[in-house]
Amino acid sequence: MANIAAQRIKREFKEVIKSEEVAKCAIKVELVNDNYTELKGEIAGPPETPYEGGTFVLEIKVPETYPFNPPKVRFITKIWHPNISSVTGAICLDILKDQWAAAMTLRTVLLSLQALLAAAEPDDPQDAVVAKQFKENQDMFKQTARHWTSIYAGGPHRNTEFDLKIRRLTDMGIEDHQARVALSSYNWDLERATEQLFS
Amino acid sequence: MGEERSTLHDRFDTGVNQDELILQQQRQIEKEISEKTPLVGDMENFSSLEKEYAGDAVYCQKVQDLSAKYKSMRRTRPDGNCFFRAFSYAYLEQLLNNPEEYERFYALASKSKDNLVALGFPQFTVEDFHDTFMEVVSRVGKGGGTFTQTDLHKLFNEQGYSDYIVVYLRLITSGRLQQEAEFYQHFIEGNRSVTDFCHQEVEPMYKESDHIHIIALSTALNVGVRVRYMDRGESSEVIAHDFPEGTRPSVHLLYRPGHYDILYP
């Protein structure tokens, strides 16, 4: 079994590096170890989304039963998205669960994740806090997601107002990321974020 | 699905993913089943089935009827792939001794890949599964002592080969459904399109088969299947359904709610 998984991944690996998406720098895969059980993926944030300009790194673990069971994938790069946990990077996507089919490939997975970044499914959330913001305050969601992209994924849009608010909290001894999470969760209401952090 | 936590306080200490846990439990159950039942079992008479239903009048009568109509049975692992596995085993087993039918099937199977690629399935994986499928079919064709029933049985109990065959048959089934989408749309409940149905119920491994799967596969391969139904229904007989309707069945399967095994007339 393990042998089938490794052989298949080897072939897929070659398929991805030859693909036109790689040529366009939209997706990328690298080996982490020699036995093809773990890979590192990368996807570019899709244009005209808050993730544009960012590069998102993924952890891909290939189970022994691959391709009959899906690869285990999670975001290493922190991201603000309704279907991705802002804490663990866990992903809620049907093809990584019960709708995986053996005819799919790493390339399909990476392209589907990229599509997920462009079209969130807030009614089937992984991160309830983000999903709520997405549904109730689209504009706030976009700004927050763009801010996370600039901080964690190398995106181009710094937001000085958000930076200042974080600074206010870090000056009080709160750790940078923790401050960002609290502010993001409370729609950048400094007072409520502070209250929550010190409660 | 998958909501991790609702309050902010939890955010920092729980990273538990519910879906992940459910999947893990599912895998565990699958593992227990697989340790108990081989992918395809040995040929057996109906005494074990009789024992299984001892004291159950309705079923006992049906086992009686079954043993009047069939000589023996062969069990398959109840892993959701049983229809595909039972069908391919029973059919390939017959091809071992039927060179004429083998020629017909070989030609059809060889061409089946182009069909799938034309329908938009990714060439890369279709080729992978088709290659393995054809490797098995070719071995069956050697016949004459070089590839025997025992070899086929061994091969079907090697998870890798066995599952590759299942996947390829799932693809052929999906291909047929999509090709004749207009017709099959009538059999799909809810608002799902045929393509959605294929993505959700046909292509993924472990998804159970229904009439629609059987009709599509038997038509695509032009192989008749007779399914004998053993359930709580009132008849004292095991009722037969032939797919596609009106064809001479070459594969006989026993259906009990949620599961298919092979029957030998």
Q: Let me know the number of strands of chain B.
A: 6
Strand runs of chain A, count:
4
Q: CATH class of chain B, please?
A: Mainly Alpha
Structural class of chain B: alpha+beta
- Tell me, rounded to a whole number, the average pLDDT of chain B: 89
Helical proportion of chain A, percent range: 40-55%
Estimated helix fraction of chain B: 40-55%
Mean pLDDT of chain A: 92
Cα Rg of chain B: 20 Å
Largest sheet of chain B: 6 strands, mixed
Assigned CATH architecture of chain B: Up-down Bundle
Task: Count up the helices of chain B.
Answer: 11
Largest sheet of chain A: 4 strands, antiparallel
| Strand coverage percent of chain B | 5-15%
Which stretches of chain A of 5+ consecutive residues score pLDDT under 50? none
Query: What is the domain tally of chain B?
Result: 1
Largest interface: A-B, 37 and 34 residues
Q: Reading side by side through the largest sheet of chain B, how are the strands ordered?
A: 1-2-6-5-3-4
Strand order, largest beta sheet of chain A: 1-2-3-4
Structure description:
The complex is a heterodimer of chains A (199) and B (265). With 199 residues, chain A is of the alpha+beta class. Chain A is built from eight helices and four strands, in the order ααββββαααααα. Chain A has helices at 2-18, 20-23, 106-118, 128-136, 138-152, 160-170, 176-185, 190-198; strands spanning 27-31, 38-44, 55-61, 72-75. Chain A has a four-stranded antiparallel β-sheet with strand order 1-2-3-4. In chain A, a hairpin with a 6-residue loop joins β1 and β2. The longest helix of chain A is centred in the first third of the chain and has 17 residues, at 2-18. The model of chain A has no long low-confidence stretch (mean pLDDT 92). With 265 residues, chain B is an alpha+beta fold. Chain B has one domain (40-264): Up-down Bundle (3 helical TM bundles of succinate and fumarate reductases). Helices cover 55% and strands 12% of the residues of chain B. Chain B has a six-stranded mixed β-sheet. The model of chain B is unreliable at 1-15 (pLDDT under 50).
